[in-house]
Specification:
Elements lengths: L1 E5 L4 H17 L4 E6 L13 E6 L7 H10 L6 E4 L14 E3 L9 H8 L14 H10 L5 E5 L11 H15 L2 E4 L5 H13 L4 E2 L6 H9 L3 E5 L2 H8 L4 E5 L4 H4 L6 E5 L14 H14 L1
Helix pairs in contact: 1-3, 1-8, 4-7, 5-6, 5-10
GO molecular function, one term: ADP-heptose-lipopolysaccharide heptosyltransferase activity
GO cellular component, one term: cytosol
Organism: Gluconacetobacter tumulisoli
């Protein structure tokens, strides 16, 4: 059995889609999978069982990336095509069954929209696949237990909680619980620059370096007692890895993208959803949410 699964270009959405893949892996134990996603999310699927290949789709002018995808897939007979991008491409492939998500943004939790593509209510929870080598590197980086992961970056500045508040929150939680900080962020100079102030102010923090694979980051996060971070792909990855996860929300919509996992919470800046400035979120409110989350673990 062959399954074509077209996921998202964005990391957070791709993480949320892993629950569907986990469901299909269990439902069809003989199936082989081809994953389609954007470059940022590609590493998320590296350790996925029974994955034949990942097609990394990079946007091209005049939507020619869809033509390239069709050419890559047209010679295969697919038993199931799942398209979370809402494109027409699967209708021009040989496929026994199709499950295509309606395109466009709409209200409600993204995870629920994804579940309905396969008729699943409640939707399956996201997962994070790691290998033994990823877990070994994570253990070498974060020996023992008692770590708090801080993720002070995001894909746009409006979602970034001020760095000095991450520092203040971490100092209080470390004094109260003994948790040691590790700062996690993505690749590239922009992510590094957003994390630099937090790293500089916490000299005892482990700097993850921004060069780990997504599987290694997931393994690193799984070793942490708590994750605190902006609404981002890393927040969703931490929740999928099973780490108690606190998401910090300002102008992004918590009703759509709250963290999803076994032990998660969020705290929201005051104001109208979708327009609240993240600067309105106080350290005290974030601390109260973090303490409550720790009590639940």
């Amino acid at each position: 059995m062959r399954i074509l699964f077209i996921s998202s270009t964005r990391l957070g959405d791709a993480v949320l889609s892993t629950g569907l893949l986990d469901h299909l892996l269990r439902l069809y134990p003989q199936a082989r999978f081809t994953i389609v996603c954007g470059p940022v999310a590609a590493g998320l699927f590296d350790r996925m069982p029974r994955r034949d290949r990942t097609i990394v789709m990079t946007k091209r002018r005049w939507d020619l990336h869809w033509l390239a995808l069709w050419r890559s897939c047209v010679t295969t007979r697919w038993d199931l095509c799942v398209d979370l991008r809402g494109s027409a491409v699967t209708f021009f492939l040989w496929g026994r069954r199709r499950a295509v998500m309606r395109g466009g943004r709409r209200p409600g939790a993204r995870i629920a929209h994804l579940g309905r593509v396969l008729g699943l209510t409640p939707p399956p929870m996201p997962v994070a696949w790691t290998g033994a080598e990823d877990r070994a590197r994570a253990e070498a980086t974060l020996p023992g237990d008692g770590w708090i992961a801080l993720a002070p970056t995001a894909n746009w500045a409006g979602k970034v909680w001020p760095a000095e508040r991450f520092v203040a929150l971490c100092r209080v939680l470390s004094a109260e619980t003994g948790l040691r900080p590790v700062v996690v962020y993505g690749p590239g100079p922009l992510e590094r620059a957003m994390a630099a102030q937090v790293i500089a102010a916490l000299p005892d923090a482990v700097d993850s370096g921004g060069s780990l694979s997504l599987a290694e980051v997931a393994a690193l996060l799984a070793r942490c007692t708590l994750f605190v971070g902006n609404d981002s792909g890393l927040m969703h990855l931490a929740a999928a890895a099973g780490t108690p996860t606190l998401g910090l929300f300002g102008p992004s919509r918590v009703s759509e993208y709250a963290p999803v996992g076994r032990c998660v919470a969020h705290v929201i800046a005051p104001g109208a959803e979708g327009r609240a400035p993240i600067a309105g979120l106080t350290v005290e409110d974030a601390l109260a949410a973090a303490r409550d989350l720790l009590r639940r673990t």
